[in-house]
Amino acid sequence: MQAEQLLKLVETELDERKAHQIAILDVRGKTSITDFMVVATATSTRHAKSLCDYVVEKVKENGLQPLGVEGELGSDWVLVDLGDVVLHVMTGQAREFYQLEKLWSVAGEKDKQ
């Protein structure tokens, strides 16, 4: 699966599962660890974990295995490493505090409300 296809799969699953403020950061040329970072806001720590669980399930259905998942139930930041795409799901408070979009500020960023 190409990076763009994986990105679309992640974005679609997050949107269907009611993630908020989905931001896609194109970090190609900025880092060698991934091509895209997806940052989304969850309504609670449980919602954050659930969103990531659904994304992992959908990725596995498409024949891919996540490289890793960090963050447990009760954590305000859950990360899913899918290789070409790294997903960060945070509570609103964590997202405001860490400001990943500002950290990675790159041209071509796409926000979805």
TrEMBL record:
InterPro entries associated with the record: Iojap/RsfS/C7orf30, NT_sf
Keywords: Cytoplasm, Repressor, Translation regulation
Pfam families: RsfS
Location(s), subcellular: Cytoplasm
Keyword Signal on entry: no
GO biological process, one term: negative regulation of translation
Subcellular location, principal: cytoplasm
Any GO MF annotation of the entry: ribosomal large subunit binding
A GO cellular component annotation in the UniProt record: cytoplasm
Record family assignment: Belongs to the Iojap/RsfS family.
Subunit organization: Interacts with ribosomal protein uL14 (rplN).
Function (record text): Functions as a ribosomal silencing factor. Interacts with ribosomal protein uL14 (rplN), blocking formation of intersubunit bridge B8. Prevents association of the 30S and 50S ribosomal subunits and the formation of functional ribosomes, thus repressing translation.
PANTHER family (UniProt xref): IOJAP SUPERFAMILY ORTHOLOG (PTHR21043), MITOCHONDRIAL ASSEMBLY OF RIBOSOMAL LARGE SUBUNIT PROTEIN 1 (PTHR21043:SF0)
Record's protein name: Ribosomal silencing factor RsfS
Originating organism: Methylomonas methanica (strain DSM 25384 / MC09)
Gene: rsfS
